Amino acid sequence: MTKNSIGLIGCGAMGSALVKGMVTMGDVDPGTVYLYDISVDRKNQVAAEYRCNTAASLEDFIPHCKKIFIAVKPQDIDGLLASLKPLVHPGQIYISVAAGITINYIESCLLPGTKVIRLMPNTPCLIGEGAIVISAGDLVTEDERSEIESMLKPLGTTIRMPEKLMDAATGLSGTGPAYVYLFIETMIDAGVSVGIRRDVASKLVIQNVIGAAKMLDSNTQHPAELRNIVTSPAGTTSAALLTLEEEGFRSCLIKAVMEATKRSEELRFG
After folding, report:
1. Domain containing 197 — which CATH number?
2. Which of 3, 149, 171, 252 could cross-link with 260 by S-S, CB 3.0 to 4.6 Å?
3. Which domain holds residue 32?
4. pTM across the whole model
5. Is the domain of 111 the same as that of 241?
6. What CATH number does residue 18 fall under?
7. Would you say residue 171 lies in a domain?
8. For position 268, what pLDDT does the model report?
């Protein structure tokens, strides 16, 4: 087993994002990365794009890799773990992005003593602006967790959470981009309804979201403080905010996150 070798199983959107982040935006040598996917065409396409190695089977690379990323769909996890079990070596770290599959379940399907880390990324990882929640099994050392976090840094921000909060992280962050997209879509429609051309409304709304987010990220002020700066007495903003409050904007969004969290709990496996 080579300390710096990395295996990645699953070359879909998130698997490809992991490779892109580690190789093109990080400092991982593509020559140390081995890719495997049941779709040969997909595997070869990702390998060619990022100059990584391909593997014809799990046996070709698993025994030689220190870190193995699992980026398959939850329904494919059982068969994969059964195939991995006889190939596991002491000291390896298995990093899973399979939604709803617990650390305990993965550990129980592999050899006793196997080190497991679980990730909950979101789609902006595809452009290096994601949020990645990370939970580690008890056998993972602090140095090992920090090393994985460093590898993931090019994909966005990593946040440590206990695994018991992973469903909540799914409801808030994993699903979160969809809430923002719906908000942006609705704001654009609102702009059109008051007479602004759709392409112009789109530019205005997107820049509003980018600018507001950067302002929050660049200082320690609470969102309410920045909102108050924009809100003049009896002005346009106060009129708009009053309508949002009356229509239940806050409570609706909170309920949406709670429902997404509940659904994640229902889909949890293991």
Report:
1. 1.10.3730.10
2. 171
3. 2-166
4. 0.91
5. no
6. 3.40.50.720
7. no
8. 86
Does one domain contain both 161 and 185? no
CB 85 within 8 A of CB 23: no
CA 115 to CA 106: how far, in whole Å? 9
Tens of pLDDT, residue by residue over 104-122, are 999 999 999 999 999 999 9
**Pick from 101, 133, 166: which residue ends a domain?**
166
